[in-house]
Specification:
single chain, Aminopeptidase, five-stranded mixed sheet, globular
């Protein structure tokens, strides 16, 4: 790879359409890792549509460009944690993705540090994120910068037809 000309900037809502190929690559990677996490047909448009009203208030997307071509991005969200365990205001990393051709150049870490500065400006108490099961690259990255496993989120599809049939048999 030739010399990188990297720039990281806060996304405007109009910039997000340029992320669609990366967003779809990321979800293909998730699905390959666990066979469960699949992007819905309108998943990108749904993600994109919620950005403008929350931009820089409770949600940010930073885009990493190489010569004006998007090669990675990170999405951060402000959430309120559980009062039961006293978490307070949380900075949640919803997505982080770097094109495989650009990995191992420190771009994910630069994206994370940029987002972390925004989180700190929002006076968060903790940072949270989810790592897709089977995404060993992601797990290693987040563990290396100090994140620890807290919960495991599990998913099971529900067959509404069989449940309805079982309920009718009981009646």
């Amino acid at each position: 790879m030739s010399q990188l000309n990297i720039e990281i900037s806060l996304a405007e809502a109009t910039d997000l359409i340029r992320l669609q190929p990366l967003f779809e690559e990321m979800y293909a990677h998730f699905f390959a890792a666990n066979g469960v996490t699949e992007l819905s047909p309108n998943g990108f448009k749904h993600w994109q549509s919620g950005y403008e009203r929350a931009r820089n208030v409770s949600r940010t997307v930073y885009i990493c460009y190489d010569n004006n071509t998007p090669v990675g991005f990170i999405e951060g969200q402000i959430r309120i944690g559980s009062p039961v365990i006293g978490q307070g205001k949380l900075g949640h990393t919803a997505h982080l993705y770097v094109n495989p051709d650009y990995r191992r150049n420190g771009l994910a870490k630069k994206l994370y540090q940029t987002q972390q500065t925004w989180f700190i400006s929002k006076k968060i108490s903790y940072e949270t994120l989810d790592v897709v099961c089977g995404n060993n690259i992601g797990l290693a990255f987040w563990s290396a910068i100090g994140f620890k496993s807290s919960f495991i989120n599990m998913l099971k599809p529900v067959d509404l037809n069989s449940r309805a049939g079982a309920h009718k048999k009981e009646e």
